[in-house]
Protein backbone atom coordinates (compact mmCIF):
# COMPACT_ATOMS: atom_id res chain seq x y z
CA UNK A 1 0.00 0.00 0.00
CA UNK A 2 1.25 3.50 -0.83
CA UNK A 3 0.53 5.76 2.12
CA UNK A 4 0.33 9.46 1.44
CA UNK A 5 2.91 11.57 3.21
CA UNK A 6 6.35 10.54 4.23
CA UNK A 7 5.27 7.51 6.12
CA UNK A 8 6.93 4.53 4.67
CA UNK A 9 9.02 2.84 2.08
CA UNK A 10 6.74 1.68 -0.69
CA UNK A 11 8.25 -0.05 -3.62
CA UNK A 12 7.19 0.52 -7.11
CA UNK A 13 7.48 -1.04 -10.50
CA UNK A 14 11.09 -0.28 -11.35
CA UNK A 15 11.75 2.25 -14.04
CA UNK A 16 14.54 1.53 -16.43
CA UNK A 17 17.60 3.42 -15.20
CA UNK A 18 17.31 6.76 -16.91
CA UNK A 19 18.14 10.22 -15.65
CA UNK A 20 15.19 12.56 -15.27
CA UNK A 21 14.89 15.11 -18.00
CA UNK A 22 13.41 15.34 -21.43
CA UNK A 23 12.65 12.33 -23.55
CA UNK A 24 11.60 12.26 -27.13
CA UNK A 25 8.15 10.88 -27.70
CA UNK A 26 8.09 7.69 -29.81
CA UNK A 27 7.87 7.87 -33.62
CA UNK A 28 4.17 7.01 -33.73
CA UNK A 29 3.44 9.73 -31.18
CA UNK A 30 5.48 12.17 -33.26
CA UNK A 31 3.60 11.34 -36.45
CA UNK A 32 0.29 11.74 -34.69
CA UNK A 33 1.53 15.01 -33.16
CA UNK A 34 2.23 16.61 -36.51
CA UNK A 35 -1.01 15.26 -38.00
CA UNK A 36 -2.92 16.62 -35.03
CA UNK A 37 -1.06 19.93 -35.37
CA UNK A 38 -2.17 20.20 -38.98
CA UNK A 39 -5.74 19.51 -37.94
CA UNK A 40 -5.58 22.38 -35.50
CA UNK A 41 -5.47 20.57 -32.11
CA UNK A 42 -4.39 22.95 -29.35
CA UNK A 43 -0.85 22.87 -28.07
CA UNK A 44 -1.95 21.99 -24.54
CA UNK A 45 -4.11 19.14 -25.78
CA UNK A 46 -1.24 17.77 -27.81
CA UNK A 47 1.05 18.10 -24.79
CA UNK A 48 -1.42 16.08 -22.70
CA UNK A 49 -1.47 13.38 -25.36
CA UNK A 50 2.32 13.17 -25.57
CA UNK A 51 2.64 12.83 -21.79
CA UNK A 52 -0.10 10.20 -21.68
CA UNK A 53 1.40 8.10 -24.49
CA UNK A 54 4.88 8.27 -22.94
CA UNK A 55 3.56 7.06 -19.58
CA UNK A 56 1.43 4.24 -21.00
CA UNK A 57 4.25 3.05 -23.26
CA UNK A 58 6.76 3.08 -20.44
CA UNK A 59 4.79 1.65 -17.53
CA UNK A 60 2.06 -0.64 -18.86
CA UNK A 61 2.86 -4.33 -19.25
CA UNK A 62 0.86 -7.47 -19.77
CA UNK A 63 -1.17 -8.91 -16.85
CA UNK A 64 -1.29 -5.67 -14.85
CA UNK A 65 -4.00 -4.17 -12.70
CA UNK A 66 -4.17 -0.46 -13.61
CA UNK A 67 -5.74 2.51 -11.87
CA UNK A 68 -7.41 4.91 -14.30
CA UNK A 69 -7.53 8.54 -13.18
CA UNK A 70 -9.98 11.28 -14.09
CA UNK A 71 -9.94 14.48 -16.12
CA UNK A 72 -9.05 15.39 -19.68
CA UNK A 73 -5.44 14.14 -19.80
CA UNK A 74 -6.35 10.60 -18.78
CA UNK A 75 -8.60 10.35 -21.84
CA UNK A 76 -5.47 10.25 -24.00
CA UNK A 77 -3.93 7.57 -21.77
CA UNK A 78 -7.00 5.37 -22.08
CA UNK A 79 -6.99 5.75 -25.86
CA UNK A 80 -3.33 4.71 -26.02
CA UNK A 81 -3.99 1.86 -23.60
CA UNK A 82 -6.88 0.57 -25.72
CA UNK A 83 -4.65 0.77 -28.78
CA UNK A 84 -1.92 -1.27 -27.07
CA UNK A 85 -4.34 -3.81 -25.63
CA UNK A 86 -5.65 -4.44 -29.13
CA UNK A 87 -2.32 -4.43 -30.96
CA UNK A 88 -0.39 -6.47 -28.38
CA UNK A 89 -3.27 -8.59 -27.10
CA UNK A 90 -2.58 -7.47 -23.52
CA UNK A 91 -4.55 -8.70 -20.53
CA UNK A 92 -5.15 -5.60 -18.41
CA UNK A 93 -7.70 -4.95 -15.67
CA UNK A 94 -8.74 -1.33 -14.99
CA UNK A 95 -9.90 0.21 -11.72
CA UNK A 96 -11.68 3.58 -12.18
CA UNK A 97 -11.34 6.65 -9.96
CA UNK A 98 -14.70 8.21 -10.91
CA UNK A 99 -17.89 7.81 -12.90
CA UNK A 100 -16.05 9.45 -15.82
CA UNK A 101 -13.19 6.93 -15.62
CA UNK A 102 -15.63 4.03 -15.45
CA UNK A 103 -17.36 5.25 -18.63
CA UNK A 104 -14.00 5.74 -20.37
CA UNK A 105 -12.93 2.20 -19.53
CA UNK A 106 -16.19 0.74 -20.84
CA UNK A 107 -16.36 2.93 -23.95
CA UNK A 108 -12.85 1.88 -24.92
CA UNK A 109 -13.55 -1.82 -24.54
CA UNK A 110 -11.23 -2.28 -21.56
CA UNK A 111 -11.83 -4.65 -18.65
CA UNK A 112 -13.49 -2.93 -15.69
CA UNK A 113 -12.89 -4.12 -12.15
CA UNK A 114 -12.91 -2.74 -8.59
CA UNK A 115 -10.94 -2.76 -5.35
CA UNK A 116 -12.99 -5.66 -3.95
CA UNK A 117 -11.64 -7.95 -6.65
CA UNK A 118 -8.27 -6.20 -7.08
CA UNK A 119 -7.27 -4.53 -3.80
CA UNK A 120 -3.70 -4.04 -4.98
CA UNK A 121 -2.82 -2.32 -8.23
CA UNK A 122 0.40 -2.48 -10.19
CA UNK A 123 0.25 1.03 -11.58
CA UNK A 124 -2.13 3.99 -11.26
CA UNK A 125 -2.04 6.74 -13.90
CA UNK A 126 -3.72 10.10 -13.34
CA UNK A 127 -3.58 13.78 -14.21
CA UNK A 128 -2.89 16.67 -11.82
CA UNK A 129 -3.71 20.34 -11.49
CA UNK A 130 -0.21 21.28 -10.36
CA UNK A 131 3.03 19.45 -9.61
CA UNK A 132 5.84 20.98 -7.53
CA UNK A 133 9.55 20.19 -7.67
CA UNK A 134 9.17 17.51 -4.95
CA UNK A 135 6.38 15.81 -6.92
CA UNK A 136 3.72 16.99 -4.50
CA UNK A 137 0.44 17.52 -6.29
CA UNK A 138 -2.75 19.49 -6.17
CA UNK A 139 -5.57 17.35 -7.53
CA UNK A 140 -9.33 17.52 -7.54
CA UNK A 141 -9.98 20.18 -10.17
CA UNK A 142 -12.52 17.70 -11.52
CA UNK A 143 -13.81 16.85 -8.05
CA UNK A 144 -12.64 13.22 -8.03
CA UNK A 145 -9.85 13.55 -5.47
CA UNK A 146 -11.09 11.03 -2.91
CA UNK A 147 -11.37 8.04 -5.21
CA UNK A 148 -8.22 9.17 -7.01
CA UNK A 149 -6.28 9.16 -3.75
CA UNK A 150 -7.66 5.76 -2.75
CA UNK A 151 -6.72 4.17 -6.06
CA UNK A 152 -3.27 5.79 -6.16
CA UNK A 153 -2.71 4.84 -2.53
CA UNK A 154 -3.15 1.14 -3.23
CA UNK A 155 -0.96 1.10 -6.33
CA UNK A 156 2.65 -0.04 -6.23
CA UNK A 157 3.50 2.81 -8.58
CA UNK A 158 1.65 6.10 -9.09
CA UNK A 159 2.38 7.88 -12.37
CA UNK A 160 1.22 11.41 -13.20
CA UNK A 161 0.63 12.86 -16.66
CA UNK A 162 0.22 16.56 -17.33
CA UNK A 163 0.87 19.33 -19.80
CA UNK A 164 3.47 22.08 -19.37
CA UNK A 165 1.00 24.43 -17.63
CA UNK A 166 0.97 22.20 -14.52
CA UNK A 167 4.72 22.18 -13.94
CA UNK A 168 5.84 24.40 -11.07
CA UNK A 169 8.44 24.69 -8.34
CA UNK A 170 6.06 25.45 -5.50
CA UNK A 171 2.33 24.68 -5.13
CA UNK A 172 0.13 27.67 -5.88
CA UNK A 173 2.50 29.10 -8.49
CA UNK A 174 0.35 27.80 -11.35
CA UNK A 175 -2.97 26.56 -9.93
CA UNK A 176 -4.90 29.54 -8.58
CA UNK A 177 -8.23 27.90 -7.78
CA UNK A 178 -7.17 26.59 -4.39
CA UNK A 179 -6.79 23.15 -2.87
CA UNK A 180 -9.94 21.06 -3.28
CA UNK A 181 -11.21 19.52 -0.06
CA UNK A 182 -14.09 17.03 -0.08
CA UNK A 183 -16.44 17.49 2.87
CA UNK A 184 -19.57 15.88 4.26
CA UNK A 185 -22.39 18.30 3.24
CA UNK A 186 -23.72 18.98 6.76
CA UNK A 187 -20.26 20.12 7.87
CA UNK A 188 -19.28 22.51 5.10
CA UNK A 189 -19.80 25.68 7.14
CA UNK A 190 -17.81 24.62 10.26
CA UNK A 191 -15.10 23.08 8.06
CA UNK A 192 -14.82 26.38 6.14
CA UNK A 193 -14.45 28.27 9.43
CA UNK A 194 -11.89 25.82 10.81
CA UNK A 195 -9.83 25.95 7.65
CA UNK A 196 -9.53 29.71 7.57
CA UNK A 197 -9.09 30.05 11.35
CA UNK A 198 -6.30 27.48 11.49
CA UNK A 199 -4.54 28.00 8.19
CA UNK A 200 -5.62 31.42 6.84
CA UNK A 201 -6.71 32.13 3.28
CA UNK A 202 -10.30 31.66 2.16
CA UNK A 203 -12.42 28.63 1.33
CA UNK A 204 -15.34 28.61 -1.08
CA UNK A 205 -18.03 26.05 -1.67
CA UNK A 206 -17.64 24.88 -5.27
CA UNK A 207 -20.80 25.65 -7.23
CA UNK A 208 -22.13 23.60 -10.12
CA UNK A 209 -22.26 25.08 -13.60
CA UNK A 210 -25.30 23.55 -15.28
CA UNK A 211 -27.25 22.94 -12.09
CA UNK A 212 -28.39 25.21 -9.30
CA UNK A 213 -26.45 24.74 -6.09
CA UNK A 214 -23.14 23.10 -5.19
CA UNK A 215 -21.10 20.48 -7.01
CA UNK A 216 -21.96 17.05 -5.58
CA UNK A 217 -19.11 14.55 -5.86
CA UNK A 218 -19.37 10.92 -6.99
CA UNK A 219 -19.50 10.14 -3.26
CA UNK A 220 -22.42 12.49 -2.56
CA UNK A 221 -20.27 15.13 -0.85
CA UNK A 222 -19.39 18.82 -1.37
CA UNK A 223 -16.07 20.39 -2.39
CA UNK A 224 -14.45 23.38 -0.72
CA UNK A 225 -11.71 25.14 -2.68
CA UNK A 226 -9.25 26.46 -0.14
CA UNK A 227 -7.25 29.42 -1.45
CA UNK A 228 -4.20 29.48 0.78
CA UNK A 229 -2.37 32.74 1.30
CA UNK A 230 1.12 31.43 1.95
CA UNK A 231 3.28 28.42 1.21
CA UNK A 232 2.84 25.81 3.95
CA UNK A 233 4.64 22.70 5.00
CA UNK A 234 2.26 20.65 2.90
CA UNK A 235 2.67 17.30 4.58
CA UNK A 236 1.78 18.77 7.99
CA UNK A 237 -1.08 20.86 6.67
CA UNK A 238 -2.52 17.89 4.81
CA UNK A 239 -2.54 15.79 7.98
CA UNK A 240 -4.02 18.62 10.04
CA UNK A 241 -6.81 19.32 7.54
CA UNK A 242 -7.74 15.66 7.49
CA UNK A 243 -8.24 15.82 11.27
CA UNK A 244 -11.00 18.46 10.94
CA UNK A 245 -14.33 16.69 11.58
CA UNK A 246 -16.32 16.57 8.36
CA UNK A 247 -13.32 16.49 6.04
CA UNK A 248 -13.33 13.41 3.83
CA UNK A 249 -10.13 13.98 1.85
CA UNK A 250 -7.84 16.70 0.54
CA UNK A 251 -6.51 17.30 -2.95
CA UNK A 252 -2.95 17.44 -1.62
CA UNK A 253 -1.11 14.33 -2.84
CA UNK A 254 2.07 14.44 -0.81
CA UNK A 255 4.97 12.15 -1.63
CA UNK A 256 2.75 9.78 -3.59
CA UNK A 257 3.85 10.21 -7.20
CA UNK A 258 6.79 8.19 -8.43
CA UNK A 259 7.23 9.86 -11.83
CA UNK A 260 5.57 12.77 -13.61
CA UNK A 261 5.46 13.10 -17.40
CA UNK A 262 4.93 16.64 -18.70
CA UNK A 263 4.11 17.16 -22.35
CA UNK A 264 5.98 20.32 -23.35
CA UNK A 265 5.26 23.09 -25.83
CA UNK A 266 8.11 22.00 -28.11
CA UNK A 267 6.73 18.46 -28.51
CA UNK A 268 9.14 16.86 -26.05
CA UNK A 269 8.20 15.09 -22.83
CA UNK A 270 9.88 16.26 -19.64
CA UNK A 271 10.20 13.61 -16.91
CA UNK A 272 10.40 14.38 -13.19
CA UNK A 273 11.25 11.42 -10.99
CA UNK A 274 11.09 11.01 -7.24
CA UNK A 275 14.52 11.52 -5.76
CA UNK A 276 15.81 8.69 -3.56
CA UNK A 277 16.09 9.61 0.12
C1 LIG B 1 -9.80 15.38 -11.14
C2 LIG B 1 -8.33 15.56 -11.14
C3 LIG B 1 -7.67 15.65 -12.48
O1 LIG B 1 -6.74 14.63 -12.58
C4 LIG B 1 -7.02 16.99 -12.56
O2 LIG B 1 -8.01 17.98 -12.37
C5 LIG B 1 -6.35 17.19 -13.92
O3 LIG B 1 -7.33 17.26 -14.91
P1 LIG B 1 -6.96 17.52 -16.43
O4 LIG B 1 -6.27 16.31 -16.92
O5 LIG B 1 -8.30 17.74 -17.09
O6 LIG B 1 -6.11 18.75 -16.48
O7 LIG B 1 -7.68 15.62 -10.15
O8 LIG B 1 -10.29 15.33 -9.83
Automatic annotation (TrEMBL):
The UniProt entry, under CDD domains, shows:
RPI_A
Please list where the region (Disordered) is annotated. Answer: 1-40
GO cellular component assignments: cytosol
Biological process annotations from GO: D-ribose metabolic process; pentose-phosphate shunt, non-oxidative branch
Could you tell me the superkingdom of the organism this chain comes from? Eukaryota
Low complexity bias spans: 14-32
- Which EC number(s) are documented for this chain? 5.3.1.6
SUPFAM superfamilies (alphabetical): D-ribose-5-phosphate isomerase (RpiA), lid domain, NagB/RpiA/CoA transferase-like
Give the record's pathway.
Carbohydrate degradation; pentose phosphate pathway; D-ribose 5-phosphate from D-ribulose 5-phosphate (non-oxidative stage): step 1/1
Which keywords does this chain's UniProt record carry? Isomerase, Phosphoprotein
Q: Does the keyword Phosphoprotein apply?
A: yes
Q: Which GO MF terms does the UniProt record name? A: identical protein binding; ribose-5-phosphate isomerase activity
Family of the protein in this entry: Belongs to the ribose 5-phosphate isomerase family.
Record's HAMAP family? Rib_5P_isom_A
Protein name as catalogued:
Ribose-5-phosphate isomerase
State the species of origin: Aquila chrysaetos chrysaetos
Amino acid sequence: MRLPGRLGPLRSTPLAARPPGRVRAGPAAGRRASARGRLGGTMAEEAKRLAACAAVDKHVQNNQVLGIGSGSTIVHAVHRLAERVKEENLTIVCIPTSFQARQLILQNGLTLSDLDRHPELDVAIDGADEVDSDLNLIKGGGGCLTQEKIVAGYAKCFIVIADYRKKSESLGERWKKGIPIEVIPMAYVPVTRALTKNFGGAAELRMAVSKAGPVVTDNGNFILDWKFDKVHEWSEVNTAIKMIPGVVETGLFIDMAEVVYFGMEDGSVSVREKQPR
